[in-house]
Amino acid sequence: MCGIVGYFGKRNASDILVDGLRRMEYRGYDSAGVACLYDGEIGVVKNPGKIKGLREKVDASGSGVLQNSIQGIGHTRWATHGPPTEVNAHPHLDVSGHFVMVHNGIIENYKQIRNGLSQHGIECVSDTDSEVLVQLIAYCYKGNLESAVSEALKKVKGTYGIVVMTDKEPGKLVTARCGSPIVLGLGKGETLVASDAAAIMPHTRDAVYLEDFDMAVITDDGVQMFDLQHSPVDREVTEMDWEEGAAEKGDYEHFMLKEMFEQPAAIRNAIRGRLDYEMGTSVLSGLDFSPRDAALISRILVVGCGTSMHAGMVGEYAIEEMAGVPAEVEQAAEFRYRNPIITPTDFVVAISQSGETADTLAAVREAKHKGAVVAGICNVVGSTIARETGRGVYLHAGPEIGVASTKAFTCQVSVMLMIALKVARTRRLPLHEGAEFCRWIERLPELVEKVLEQNDAIKSIAQKYASCDNAFFIGRGYLYPVALEGALKLKEISYVHAEGYHAAELKHGPIALLQEDTPVIALLNNIPGKEKTIGNAEECKARKAPVIAVVTEGDEEAAEGFDDVIVIPECPPSITPVPTVVALQLLSYHIAAARGCEIDQPRNLAKSVTVE
Length: 612
Ligand code: M6R
Prior knowledge:
Elements: E1 3-8, H1 13-23, E2 31-38, E3 41-48, H2 51-61, H3 64-68, E4 71-77, E5 92-93, E6 99-104, H4 110-119, H5 131-140, H6 145-153, E7 160-166, E8 173-178, E9 183-186, E10 191-194, E11 206-209, E12 214-219, E13 222-227, E14 238-239, H7 255-261, H8 263-271, E15 275-276, E16 281-282, H9 291-295, E17 299-304, H10 306-323, E18 327-331, H11 332-337, E19 346-352, H12 358-369, E20 373-378, H13 384-389, E21 392-394, H14 407-425, H15 431-452, H16 455-465, E22 470-475, H17 480-494, E23 497-502, E24 520-523, H18 530-542, E25 547-552, E26 564-568, H19 577-594
Parallel strand pairs: 17-18, 17-19, 19-20, 20-21, 22-23, 22-24, 24-25, 25-26
Antiparallel strand pairs: 1-4, 1-10, 2-3, 2-4, 5-6, 6-7, 7-8, 8-12, 9-10, 9-11, 11-14, 12-13, 15-16
Helix pairs in contact: 1-2, 4-5, 5-6, 8-14, 8-15, 10-14, 10-17, 14-15, 14-19, 15-19, 16-19, 17-19
5-amino-5-deoxy-1-O-phosphono-D-mannitol binds at residues 305-308, 352-354, 357, 360, 403-405, 488, 492, 608-609.
């Protein structure tokens, strides 16, 4: 969603800000802007639309401020309150024009604040909830920016990540967070601030993640951190471990394509050093569980949203099958608001690539509040969920830039399988079976490679169906979550209306929609219940729907009579979701490409959904 970047140093600020915004484009946005401060003057440039347009406007501005400044702030906005217009875009100036601010999050009591300001003759000009905050900061200002910021923030209900500056105190940026991430990048003679490490990575690897209610004051003397009461706080400097170029597209046409092809390496990173053949188990030190702790778990609850929830569903099946421990997956927002029953022996696993998804974070807080042991499975190191859970497993998948999640899903499933193995070994799974399962986990990258080798063949199938308006994905058992994930991938990047169903559910209603131009992607891999799914696919065929059969290598006869076939290498049912989903990712990608869609930044979508 929205992205924030700020810079104070020795180099041209507007270049660094626009580049930082470009690096956060993947998060999804519909307008952007920058503000710089130079020689006592604030210059603001905003653009509804793409960063490219903002860049052109900055270049054309001819403003001495933007060309010479070494201090500034920038923002990409994903519209919530008010349409994506220039006036609603950030940075927002206060009425006096002396204060300028960028904000992520939602100010819930903005209407009350706006009415209160209005009584003092201060009228907001935009539709946004954000603008009230800069007006309030200006109103609270009595000669010290950080005091005004903390004063104003005490009156705010909601979430915020902000960066503010004023021409009354040049050489100073003030940033603060509550519920919306802020990371500081400590460079040589310069400091960056951003909502996303991607904007900082090219400049420095030394990062400090602010906690909720922290403020930081950035000046020539470096960074000072306080809480809202002005007591100093100390936050650890961590080193960002993403490889150089990891957030670049390289020779690939899209980040999504690059990230699909990175999956073998990403999974290798996710499992490296985490398999113990001797004990036939996994070593997940971040979970902070002794075998005895694991043995005492009575139930595992998995919470997440979208693709992460689908990965959790694969984990649910594996945990119940291998460990015999009851497991449930719940959409994180639902978990939070339905007052779930939690017992002290429940283990709650929150899955989130970004570690910032608002609903998943809220579920984590609810589960902790109710006394559960909570762990996070996150990709982004230092993200809020990773920090608030305090225990968990990092994916080490590298940055995922494409809005459509691909490598995060396969790594999430790999980690869930390792969790299932760990718990299972404290229960009924014998050592030799545990060791055998380790070998299968280790083979995941190779299985994925075999599917990636079929890229051209899958592309040809995709081109046949690229003009369809509707599609169905069906599967059962371990392949039911994969059907859901396949449909999500297709709809989000190609705008084809796609639904994932349990194969048995189709004839309870959805089958009425099938016709000649509605492809059904049937997951007929060799797992228990395969014959039933073949029967369900036949039913689709009988309604004239073309069927793309996904089958196990060596079992090609399962595809007989169907229109197209994709072959997945042979592996156990709990392992097969990983190679199978890769085929569906490629299919969706090529359909979207053939339709000329904007694959990495689909319309209306944000990479990280930080509002509920
Ligand atoms: O960062 P998270 O894993 O918490 O994100 C959850 C969903 O928003 C995300 O998986 C979304 O469904 C994907 N973009 C789909 O590809």
